[in-house]
């Protein structure tokens, strides 16, 4: 397996506070990799540096060997990186399908078309994507009335619209019921397998993490303290230390 | 040296009243997020109430206590008036879309103008002298009025008192909390409604004190309210909206700069302020001490907009029917109805162009008249200097305005929210003052005249058809763009700029193009205007013109597609009818306030809601 | 160029009915929730001759209200004497908000819907200029009462526009004539930064230089209209140390300028020549602080000798309970001029009225006989000039005289050269 994403010594400081302290890792093609850690560990900062929302203080990011450090989000997106956010940012004034169509319009570089009906463009493709995440029956509903879990699914559909090779998902199941979490991640895993894309995700729910991640990284206070498969991470004494209060989780997983 | 110090002192003395009024505006904005157009009216009220009290109190309390007591009391009375306005007018509409309240405050301006005229009469009133403070001190040989020195000494104490109020009291804690995070206040279990009322009253009281304190240096007149709005916004914005020390620094900066401007660049007094504001905003987009606005703070509150649809069959038939009626009208009606309709179509196109960036783009421009007037001037200049035939000159209207929008937009688009609004205001003032002062070319406020259409369009009926065709095509073009991928991208950038950027959309570039398009279409309206009236004057570029458009867009409904058109039609027709009456401003003001309270989503938005409730409109078929 | 030249001054019931139809169409078009009843035109027993006076009744209420009362007094007098052409005279007073575009719209409304025979009005010169251009384009008649701009009858003059009031050039020339008699060599000017201010300063300079070529203008101040920073202006002028000052500020600007200037001793030992300051509109608000010794143009209504001037003051005070302002005089004289013109024309169509106005003589006005000159359509209304003093806590003009404007105007040839060929 070749690596699709390589991160070298990536760091971000706010004044004297160093949110991310020079971390390095890789994501390989076709794998689902999780980035976990307690609140404030720097997971979202790290993600935002990868997709261009935040400019790193130092370090480099390579996509498929090409440097993408500090590029604006829209450029990184065009290079084939999809992204979902911890707090969803769908377009409230559009319908579900229009949200997906918007991504397709952008992908096909039709944003500056002044004529023609946007609603009529790429409907079939958009419907197929919605169908893929189980949202086809809600295609014409206004986005503003969707249930939270459905919004997350919609976000997934949007992120898949430009056929990315790497998908970054920030807390994809936050705020969802446990059963729905498993279902959503199962869906993601299926897509990963079928499309052959790679996923990097952050997650609080260890059930989800240990059920779906091929590899797990643990971030604590801006430092990467572990990077390996589930067993390796679980055995890591530093990780156990960090998750001392969360020992329960490990037990549950043991007999899961 | 003496001259320099004397100038400095003059600037500091001038800063006193300006700081008081601006701090009130800043406070109100910081907590309630209301851009209070009516703040100048409270300043004017302060001046009038002050004069009245100063005529009465000294007889009762003696000259000293009478004078200073009158000033203190004036603030309290104006504060009460402010509280009344907040409770009656603003409280019912806090849930309306952000910035909608400015329509209500515009209504308040009109009402207070006519009330002041009724109570105090039309004549200018000179302010009474401060007792014991007539005459001058000599400082380095330069005469400095004693009252100036008093003002200079008072101001820091007022700043200190305000600072103490904000830093040391519970009210202050709440105000700070509300300025930073409104939901936090609600979470603290505070009655937010009374906090808002209290802050609005305090802000108004400060304006009242400002009005009363300047009396010994000036007086009271009915133009004070509008005259102070310019400097007021400039100071608040340069200081950073919501920042009291910022307002203080900016008030001093502007006042001192003005004094030196008078001495060394006497012709520049019109523009200096706005040049400074534009420079500050370009370098420090959130003012000297302002904080960056939280994303989604503006244009996002209230219920989310419903998805848009092109007109269905019924809608298209209705529009076609209306157009048919308008086309046949010249057969049955007298010429004046056509003149009025010509004006309405022009205004509707102007409003629709603003609605395009404001509603669809979420960019609130306070300076849209720059493009309307700019277009009118572009065409008029071609006719005047190049003797261009009307047909060609007319094309220069949208072209010139579009170019202007490209230049202004290049600076403004980088900002958002209220700061974007203020920078557009500054630029439109620059354009205005350029036209006003470059007399050799623009003939200043003598205007460009005899700009009449070609023979085949001359006369009411032909020009009405011309306006109808061009105006309707312009509006249809805007609607087409709104439903096109570009319009969707613009809306995407408004709904969530982060998401749009994360799907490959260059949001700023989309907004830039939209800004230029809106400018060109406003210029088209300006071109129609200039040939309809035969002349153009700098008034078409004034702040008031921008506000007119803004008001009708909000009045019609920001979160709708046809709000601007409906609002413009409503306003033009109502004005035509009301201005025949004596106290028409009072009536118009009350009417605006009534519409705002009864229809907080604008006329179209509220009509749609009513339609939904009555089952006349289906959810997805709106607009 | 005469696509629409609608009939005006129609008689009979026709227009009234059509007006109603038209309102109905409008109302259904507006379709707005306005529950208030629509205005209804007053019902006339006898068909009056209507004139529309378009003005900034709200925006410049302090000037427009006395003007309007002057018109109303004149109309009452005319009608008491049987009206004109056997019909009553009637003025309507629409408000244009000081907006030239709005004024043009109202003018169209007046001529096509209200059935007025001509229109008058405007205080602000730019509104007057817009109305003038419009009158020419549509071939209507416009009589400008108050606007001062020289261009109205000269550079932009046209056959359809007449003007009553004495213009900027002439008033400045009268002041310059007085200034030229003194030893003052260096002058500072202060004027609001808009057309009227610039025009006045240019006129004063030109006239003074002509009369006294060695004068020098050492400082020019241009405060924004009604936004004066008086203290700074006073300091700047003081710094230039001129022998004399020419002032064009008025209204609230003037009050602030006078107060700061007096406090800081700017006017001590300096001659000040000031436009309009003696007009009650501007002088009365100054009260006891009126600057003594200034040489001004104005209106000393309190000091007029027996005759038509004093009679007008008495009649005005009886009718309104107020003392007259400059605007009262202008409004009154203007309405009287209109009546005289219609009487002379014997008809109300535009062509006859224009013909009547050219060379029209109005024999009895408060300032004596007037003529509307055929050459430039300017009336021969003059100006009162005099020195300011304070009496009984009020500013008044003393040693004043009424000056005929004609000697101060450019020569006929110069005027012909300036006026566009028609």
Strand order of the largest sheet of chain A: 6-7-8-3-9-10
The count of β-strands of chain A is 10
**In percent terms, what proportion of residues of chain A is strand?**
15-25%
**Number of extended strands of chain B:** 6
Keywords (chain B): Amino-acid transport, Cell membrane, Membrane, Transmembrane, Transmembrane helix, Transport
Protein name (chain B): ABC transporter permease
GO molecular function, one term (chain B): branched-chain amino acid transmembrane transporter activity
Subcellular location (chain B): Cell membrane
What features would you describe in this structure?
The complex is a heterotrimer of chains A (256), B (623) and C (422). With 256 residues, chain A is of the alpha/beta class. Chain A has 2 domains: 1-80 and 164-256, Rossmann fold (3-Layer(aba) Sandwich); 90-163, no CATH class. Chain A has helices at residues 43-50, 73-78, 96-107, 123-132, 148-160, 178-195, 206-212, 230-235, 237-242, 247-254; strands at 3-14, 17-28, 32-36, 58-63, 66-67, 81-84, 166-170, 198-202, 215-220, 223-228. In chain A, strand 7 (166-170), helix 6 and strand 8 (198-202) form a beta-alpha-beta unit. By secondary structure, chain B is an all-alpha fold. Chain B contains 25 helices and 6 strands. In chain B, a hairpin with a 2-residue loop joins strand 2 and strand 3 (142-145). By secondary structure, chain C is of the alpha/beta class. In chain C, 41% of the residues lie in helices and 17% in strands. Chain C has helices at residues 14-30, 61-80, 100-114, 125-138, 168-180, 195-211, 230-240, 251-263, 280-286, 308-320, 326-345, 350-357, 412-418; strands spanning 49-54, 89-92, 118-121, 142-144, 161-163, 186-190, 216-221, 244-247, 271-278, 295-298, 361-362, 370-371, 383-391, 394-403. Residues 1-44 of chain C have low confidence and may be disordered. Chains in contact: A-B, B-C. Chains B and C meet through helix 1, helix 4, strand 1, strand 3 and helix 9 of B and helix 1, helix 2, helix 3, helix 4 and strand 7 of C.
């Amino acid at each position: 397996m070749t690596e699709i994403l390589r991160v070298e010594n990536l760091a971000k400081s706010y004044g004297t506070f160093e949110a991310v302290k020079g971390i390095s890792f890789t994501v390989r093609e076709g794998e689902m990799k999780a980035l976990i850690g307690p609140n404030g560990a720097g997971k979202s900062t790290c993600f935002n540096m990868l997709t261009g929302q935040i400019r790193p203080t130092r370090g480099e990011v390579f996509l498929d060997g090409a440097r993408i450090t500090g590029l604006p989000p829209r450029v990184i997106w065009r290079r084939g990186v999809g992204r979902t956010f911890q707090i969803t940012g769908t377009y409230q004034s559009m319908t579900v399908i229009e949200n997906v169509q918007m991504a397709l319009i952008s992908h096909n570089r039709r944003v500056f078309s002044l004529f023609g009906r946007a609603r009529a463009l790429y409907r079939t493709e958009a419907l197929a994507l919605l169908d893929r995440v189980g949202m086809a029956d809600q295609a014409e509903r206004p986005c503003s009335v969707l249930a939270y879990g459905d919004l997350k699914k919609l976000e997934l559909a949007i992120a898949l619209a430009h056929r990315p090779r790497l998908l970054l998902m920030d807390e994809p199941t936050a705020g969802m019921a446990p059963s729905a979490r498993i279902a959503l991640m199962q869906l993601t895993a299926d897509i990963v397998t079928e499309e052959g894309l790679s996923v990097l995700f952050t997650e609080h729910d260890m059930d989800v993490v240990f059920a779906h991640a091929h590899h797990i990284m643990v971030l604590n206070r801006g430092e990467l303290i572990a990077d390996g498969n589930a067993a390796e991470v679980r055995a890591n004494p530093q990780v156990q230390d960090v998750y001392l209060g969360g020992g329960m989780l490990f037990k549950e997983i043991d007999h899961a | 040296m003496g001259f320099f110090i004397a100038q400095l002192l003059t600037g500091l003395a001038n800063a006193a009243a300006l700081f008081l009024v601006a701090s009130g505006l800043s406070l109100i904005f910081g907590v309630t997020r209301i851009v209070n157009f009516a703040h100048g009216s409270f300043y004017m009220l302060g001046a009038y109430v002050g004069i009245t009290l100063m005529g009465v109190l000294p007889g009762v309390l003696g000259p000293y206590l009478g004078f200073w007591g009158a000033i203190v009391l004036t603030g309290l009375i104006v504060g009460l008036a402010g509280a009344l306005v907040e409770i009656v007018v603003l409280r019912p509409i806090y849930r309306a879309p952000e910035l909608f309240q400015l329509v209500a405050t515009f209504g308040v301006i009109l009402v207070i103008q006519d009330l002041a005229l009724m109570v105090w009469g039309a004549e200018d009133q000179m302010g009474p002298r401060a007792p014991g403070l007539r005459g001058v001190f000599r400082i380095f040989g330069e005469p400095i009025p004693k009252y100036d020195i008093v003002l200079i000494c008072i101001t820091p104490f007022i700043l200190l008192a305000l600072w103490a109020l904000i830093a040391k009291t519970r009210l202050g804690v709440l105000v700070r909390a509300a300025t930073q995070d409104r939901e936090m206040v609600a979470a603290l279990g505070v009655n937010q409604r009374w906090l808002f009322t209290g802050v609005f009253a305090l802000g108004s009281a400060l304006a009242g004190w400002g009005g009363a304190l300047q009396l010994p240096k000036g007086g009271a007149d009915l133009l004070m309210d509008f005259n102070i709005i310019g400097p007021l916004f400039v100071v608040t914005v340069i200081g950073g909206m919501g920042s009291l020390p910022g307002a203080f620094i900016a008030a001093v900066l502007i006042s001192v700069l003005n004094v030196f401007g008078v001495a060394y660049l006497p012709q520049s007094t019109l523009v200096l302020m706005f040049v400074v504001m534009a420079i500050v905003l370009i370098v420090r987009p959130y003012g000297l001490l302002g904080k960056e606005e939280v994303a989604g703070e503006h244009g996002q509150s209230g219920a989310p907009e419903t998805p848009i649809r092109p007109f269905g069959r019924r809608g298209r038939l209705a529009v076609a029917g209306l157009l048919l009626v308008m086309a046949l009208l010249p057969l049955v009606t007298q010429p004046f109805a056509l003149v009025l309709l010509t004006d309405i179509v022009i205004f509707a196109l102007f409003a629709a162009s603003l609605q395009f960036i404001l509603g669809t783009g979420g960019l609130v421009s306070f300076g849209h008249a720059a493009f309307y007037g700019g277009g009118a001037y572009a065409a008029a200049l071609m006719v005047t200097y190049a003797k261009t035939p009307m047909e060609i000159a007319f094309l220069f209207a949208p072209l010139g305005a579009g170019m202007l929008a490209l230049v202004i937009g290049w600076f403004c688009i980088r900002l958002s929210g209220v700061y974007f609004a203020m920078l557009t205001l500054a630029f439109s003032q620059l354009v205005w003052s350029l036209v006003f002062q470059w007399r050799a070319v623009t003939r200043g406020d003598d205007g460009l005249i005899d700009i009449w259409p070609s023979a085949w369009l001359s006369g009411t009926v032909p020009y009405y058809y011309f306006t109808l065709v061009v105006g309707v095509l312009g509006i249809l073009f805007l609607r087409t763009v709104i439903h096109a991928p570009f319009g969707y991208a613009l809306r995407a950038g408004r709904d969530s700029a982060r998401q749009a950027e994360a799907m490959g959309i260059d949001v700023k570039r989309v907004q830039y193009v939209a800004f230029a398009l809106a400018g060109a279409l406003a210029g088209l309206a300006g071109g129609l205007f200039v040939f309809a009236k035969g002349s153009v004057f700098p008034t078409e570029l004034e702040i008031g013109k921008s506000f007119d458009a803004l008001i009708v867009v909000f009045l019609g409904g920001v979160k709708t597609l046809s709000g601007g058109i409906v609002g413009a039609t409503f306003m033009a027709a109502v004005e035509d009818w009301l201005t025949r009456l004596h106290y028409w401003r009072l009536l118009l003001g009350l009417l605006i306030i009534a519409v705002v309270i009864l229809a907080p989503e604008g006329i179209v938005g509220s009509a749609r809601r009513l339609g939904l409730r009555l089952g006349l409109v289906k959810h997805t078929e709106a607009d | 160029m005469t696509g629409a030249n609608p009939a005006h001054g129609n008689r009979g019931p026709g227009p009234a009915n059509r007006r109603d139809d038209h309102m109905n169409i409008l109302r259904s078009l507006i379709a707005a929730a306005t529950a208030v009843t629509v205005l209804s035109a007053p019902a006339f027993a006898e068909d009056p001759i209507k004139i529309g006076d378009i003005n900034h009744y709200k925006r410049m209420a302090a000037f427009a209200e006395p003007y309007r009362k002057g018109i109303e007094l004149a109309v009452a007098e005319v009608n008491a004497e049987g009206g004109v052409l056997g019909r009553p005279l009637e003025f309507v007073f629409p408000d244009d908000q000081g907006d030239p575009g709005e004024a043009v719209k109202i003018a169209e409304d007046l001529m096509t819907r209200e059935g007025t025979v001509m229109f008058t009005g405007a205080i602000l010169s730019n509104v007057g200029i817009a109305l003038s251009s419009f009158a020419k384009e549509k071939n209507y008649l416009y009589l400008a009462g108050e606007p001062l701009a020289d261009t109205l009858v000269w550079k932009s003059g046209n056959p359809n526009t007449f003007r009553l009031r004495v213009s900027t050039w002439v008033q400045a020339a009268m002041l310059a004539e007085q200034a030229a008699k003194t030893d003052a060599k260096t002058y500072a000017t202060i004027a609001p930064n808009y057309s009227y201010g610039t025009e006045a300063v240019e006129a004063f300079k030109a006239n003074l230089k002509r009369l006294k070529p060695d004068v020098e203008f050492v400082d020019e101040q241009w405060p924004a209209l009604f936004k004066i920073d008086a203290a700074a202006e006073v300091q700047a002028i003081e710094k230039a140390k001129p022998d004399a000052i020419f002032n064009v500020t008025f209204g609230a600007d003037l009050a602030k300028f006078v107060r700061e200037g007096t406090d800081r001793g700017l006017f001590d030992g300096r001659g000040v020549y000031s436009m309009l300051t003696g007009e009650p509109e501007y002088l009365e608000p100054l009260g006891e602080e009126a600057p003594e010794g200034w040489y001004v143009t104005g209106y000393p209504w309190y000091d007029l000798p027996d005759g038509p001037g004093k009679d007008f003051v008495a009649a005005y005070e009886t009718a309104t309970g107020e003392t007259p302002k400059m605007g009262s005089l202008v409004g009154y004289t203007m309405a009287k001029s209109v009546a005289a013109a219609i009487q002379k024309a014997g008809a109300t169509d535009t062509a006859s009225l224009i013909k009547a106005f050219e060379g029209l003589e109005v024999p009895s006005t408060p300032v004596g006989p007037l003529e509307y000159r055929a050459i430039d359509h300017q009336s021969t209304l003059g100006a009162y000039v005099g020195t300011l003093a304070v009496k009984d806590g009020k500013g008044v003009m003393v040693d004043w005289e009424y000056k005929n404007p004609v000697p101060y105007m450019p020569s006929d040839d110069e005027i012909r050269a300036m006026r566009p060929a028609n």
